[in-house]
Amino acid sequence: MTEPLPASVAADPVAVTVRHDDSLVSVPLNRTVRLDVILPPGHQAGGSSPARWPVLFLNDGQDLPQLNMQAILDSLYKQQAIRPFVLVAIHAGDRIQEYGTAAQADYMKRGSKAALYTDFVLTELLPYVRKHYPVSADAADNVFAGFSLGGLSAFDIVFHHPDRFSKAGVFSGSFWWRSRAFDGRYSDDTDRIMHALVRSGSYAKGLTFWFETGTDDETSDRNNNGIIDSIDDTTDLIDELVRKGYDRNRDIRYVEISGGQHNQETWSRIMPDFLTWAFAP
Fold first, then answer.
1. Mean pLDDT throughout 182-189?
2. Of the candidates 76, 100, 96, the residue with the CA atom closest to the CA atom of residue 87
3. What is the model's pLDDT at position 47?
4. How many CB atoms lie within 10 A of CB 51?
5. What Gene3D superfamilies does this protein map onto (predicted)?
6. How many structural domains compose the chain?
7. How far, in Å, CA of 106 to CA of 119, rounded?
8. Quick one: CA torsion of 21, 114, 230, 188, rounded to 10 degrees?
9. Where are the beta strands (DSSP E) in 120-276?
10. pLDDT top residue among 265 and 11
11. Are the beta carbons of 267 and 257 closer than 8 angstroms?
12. b/e map of 165-178 (b: 16 or more CB within 10 Å)?
């Protein structure tokens, strides 16, 4: 069932509308998947927006309150900094198994349900959302984003399904995801799973990517180059995309936050940058 905000809030022509949807039962995931859906201002009143809005799918949807997402969206809409879109925030289940790369689990068998999660997104989530909410089915209007492991998942889904999505947003992505443990005795360049998938994958015209890292995301520096691993892993992935044919300036935006940490506070702070990139008026 869906639970709208109180009428006094939902009716505000400059405020977003939030609905909590517990009606989607997934067969591959064997669980009910809760969705928090944020509709743009004027939805209740049938404003001047198009009949079918662009849509952002967001992993770790349970974190919306910590991200302060509703206030961010209200502010951006009031500034007319973004065009109207629908946000579908997907609550995580067994995130260490459901998030990852669909092609393979990591060396510790984490991400063992990532293929099932991708199946859920493509065969259940997209049809459900398009049936029950006024969203566009055009890949050019569909965006997927996430944080940490959820960012890895979002990137993997977008990169491999350009017929369904056109943009990926990755906050502090877990691009360290690897096929064997790093022990310092060999070059790990070929062990990072997502990098290898990009190398073996195909260029798709129209795909664009947004990446964020924080200089305090972690402290590990496995190659002792003075740059933390999370930054190296992200910039190395960007290099793989460029070698694949994506333009570093046109197709990719990379934001590095000085002092940024691996938490919702940092991600909330940079969220307006991502949203204005993805949904520029």
1. 65
2. 76
3. 44
4. 7
5. alpha/beta hydrolase (3.40.50.1820)
6. 1
7. 19
8. 180
9. 142-147, 167-171, 208-216, 252-261
10. 265
11. no
12. bbbbbbbbbbbbbb
Other residues' Cβ atoms within 10 Å of the Cβ of residue 21: 19
Question: Which burial class, exposed, middle or buried, applies to 58 when counting CB atoms under 10 A from its CB (0-12, 13-18, 19+)?
Answer: buried
- Residue 151 contacts residue 172 (beta carbons within 8 Å): yes
- Residue whose token pair is 């039962």: 25
Q: Of 49-58, 210-219, 239-248, which range is least confident? A: 49-58
Domain extent for 76: 2-278
146 vs 149: CA distance, rounded Å: 8
Percent of the chain exceeding pLDDT 70 equals 90
CB-based contact 181:187 (threshold 8 Å): no
pLDDT band at 6 (very low <50, low <70, confident <90, very high): very low
What is the spatial distance between Cα 125 and Cα 240, in angstroms, rounded to a whole number? 30
For the chain, the residue count is: 281
Spatial distance between the Cα atoms of 89 and 58, rounded to a whole number of angstroms: 5
Looking at the DSSP bridge assignments, the partners of residue 135 are: 53
Distance CA 146, CA 118 (A): 14
CATH number of the CATH domain containing 72 = 3.40.50.1820
Residue with tokens 């459901």: 98
Give, as one character, the DSSP assignment of residue 53. Answer: B
By the 8 A CB rule, do 267 and 64 touch?
A: no
Tokens linked to 258:
């000085």
104 beta partners: 101
Mean local confidence (pLDDT), 122-139: 96
